[in-house]
Amino acid sequence: MSVFLRDLKRFLLVAFGGFLMALNIVIFVQSADLFPGGLTGITLLLQNIFLKYFNIHLPYSITVYAFNLIPVWIGFKFIGKRFTFFSVVMIFISGLFTDILSGFEWLHLTDDILLCTVFGGILNAVSVVLCLFAESSSGGTDFIAIYISEKTGRSAWNLIFGFNCIVLFFAGILVGWDKALYSIIFQYASSQVTTLLYKKYSKITLLIITDKSDEIYATIKNLTNHGATVFEGRGEYSGKTHKMVYTVVSAAESGSLEKHLRTVDPNAFINVIESKDILGRFFKRQPD
């Protein structure tokens, strides 16, 4: 795929993700007065406070753009310029369409706070994952979560969830505990669906019993750039000697790799194990 087509695909993903984010804020979040995670939640909280106590309407877009200045700088400095550029596209589109769609009353679907909490959390996760698939983010604390994940090799979404709960503590004091508690459910649903759909930071161990170890290793190296270790052993049932190829890849790479390995050696016996933790050198593609 050419660089132009790849960037076009990334742009379309972040644009759609940004539109879904805005749609979710208008249909579910604002309808139930919820507070999503990160800077989006802080922006909505400030809008609520200024409107309630000072009768001043803060534009969502301008406020969230201002809050994202420092995270965007972190992205350019420590993560990747192209990664940050597409993240900025997502931030701009989500902010712009949130203000535009807020004027359409027909987008109000339900006043049921539980429905808004659950489906809002799911839709929020989908919009975030679309950006992650485009090798970008939805901005705000996502920059921080990805920075931590890239440095440690572990998912940081639950850490961000904990930070968001602290923010919601203050939201409960200022605007009411019922909205804050439902927002915790919203954020929990969003973080769990994000972890379920996005597997980059999960690790999979493959144990492959094969008679074509060289071809198997070449496939692993070409597709994932990961190494492998080859052991020799004897099958007690057949009494024959076979090779076992041991490798660790990311969960996002595992599905495609297994299909290619099956093509290389249809008779291979492949044991797929979820790895809890990996210590030592492990190849990771860095954001561009």
From TrEMBL:
Keyword Nucleotide-binding applies: no
GO cellular component: plasma membrane
Cited CDD domains: YitT_C
Top-rank lineage group of the source organism: Bacteria
Classification via Pfam families: DUF2179, YitT_membrane
UniProt membrane topology term: Multi-pass membrane protein
Start and end residues of each DUF2179 domain: 226-280
InterPro entries recorded: DUF2179 (IPR019264), N-reg_PII/ATP_PRibTrfase_C (IPR015867), UPF0750_membrane (IPR051461), YitT (IPR003740)
Keyword terms of this UniProt record: Cell membrane, Membrane, Transmembrane, Transmembrane helix
Segments passing through the bilayer: 12-36, 56-76, 83-101, 113-134, 155-174
Subcellular location as annotated: Cell membrane
Name of the protein in question: Uncharacterized membrane-anchored protein YitT, contains DUF161 and DUF2179 domains
Organism listed in the record: Treponema berlinense
